[in-house]
Amino acid sequence: MDGRREWPPIRNTSHSAAKSRILMAVSVVVSLGCLFVFLYPHGFLSSSSSQQVVSTKCESPERLNELKMEYAEASKKTAELKKQVEQLTEKLRLSEQGKKHAEKQVEAFGIRRKAGPFGTVKGLRTNPTVVPDESVNPRLSIVLENLAVERELIVALANSNVKDLLEIWFRNIKRIGIPNYLVVALDEETARYCELNDVPVYKRDPDEEIDSIGRTGINHAVSGLKFRILREFLQLGYSVLLSDIDILFLRNPFNHLYRDSDVESMTDGHGNMTAYGYDDVFDEPGMGWARYAHTMRIWVYNSGFFYIRPTFPSIELLDRVAVRLAREQNAWDQAVFNEELFFPSHPGYEGLYASRRTMDFYLFMNSKVLFKTVRKDATLRKFSPVIIHINYHPNKLERMKAVEEFYVNGNRDALNDFPDGSDR
């Protein structure tokens, strides 16, 4: 091959049309608001009330009730308009985000170009998505078509061993109004439990190899299944925000994603250096002048909460991890996940070329950050994360309830009695 590569141009027509419709809708809503302000500069009821100041004391109880009802109705309409503006603004942001990614793909895969001036050249980070293949799983395709928003959703795997954690998990997802989430039930009991609680659930077709682990497997064994199960979601063309069950949702995570990489993951790091990487100097005195060796170090990505786009590198990542977990009996899925993401190509090994992004460790918070740092800092205690993952502590249910009590119910003493780490 001579290195030339042609790529069909990506059309931005749909993005432009979507943007125009959203801008038009926002303009209509804003115009209505401006008209409302022009007609009622002192409020909806001020024009009538100013003419009736003298007779206010003589108003009948019936008329006062009517005024209260009118005021309540006006407040309700104002709230609805505000909500519509927020929704349209978010759609506009997503449309702009998608347009920028598409433009970068056109630049990278289109006609070969000369490099620009110093400091202006940018490589491609956002790989194009695969063509959806509904034939992979027609039943799941129908479920996702009705459930996903902007072709993305939260997915969690669960069996009956984690029912108490699962209840807290979906209770808070419902509380903040996230519609696009799905539980993949690994046994019949969990499927029935979700249906009884009006939780979107999907039960896979029988597969004894997977079902046996799903019914009786411990946390690590069940966690390893997700790499095989998620593949179908990506083949169908959907982006997945994979979530473990020991996670408390406090805000909608989809409002805080960049969507510019194949994998966008929370970190096990607990500070800027450990979360985002640093130069770790290794000291070997016997080497004399060359005693100091510089190494790059970063805390691992957490395989219990990551956003993955339907791209070829993403699917290759899932395949690599699934194959290794099936072959290496004592392998830990999180270790394998990180090795495949980070290890470079070298003699005898071809590395994975997947783009990756580390999530903000204060927004997507692990329990070490919460219990060692945040709960002890007066300023950080006031900050509301997007999610909290109880990944550093074995007494998950107890701590998860306390976190819910602290952030949702406002009990500022709920976290005080716990040690920083674990007792076992």
Describe the structure.
This protein has 13 helices and twelve strands. It has 424 residues and is an alpha/beta fold. The strands form three sheets. The chain has a seven-stranded mixed β-sheet with strand order 3-2-1-4-9-6-10, with helices on both faces. Strands 5-12-11 form a three-stranded mixed β-sheet. Helix 8 (219-235) packs antiparallel against helix 10 (312-327). The longest helix has 49 residues, at 61-109. It is globular, with a radius of gyration of 26 Å.
Summed up, what is this model?
The chain is of the alpha/beta class.
Keywords:
alpha/beta, 7-stranded mixed sheet, 424 residues, globular, 12 strands, disordered N terminus
Mean pLDDT equals: 86
Low-confidence stretches: 1-15, 44-57
Distance between the termini: 58 Å
* Helix share bin: 40-55%
Radius of gyration, taken over Cα atoms and rounded to an integer in Å: 26 Å
Shape: globular
Please provide the count of β strands: 12
Number of helices: 13
Question: How would a textbook summarize the main sheet?
Answer: 7 strands, mixed
User: Could you tell me the strand content as a percent range?
Assistant: 5-15%
Structural class, by secondary structure, is alpha/beta
Strands in their spatial order, largest beta sheet: 3-2-1-4-9-6-10
- What series of H and E elements makes up the topology? HHHHEHEHEHHEEEHEEEHHEEHEH
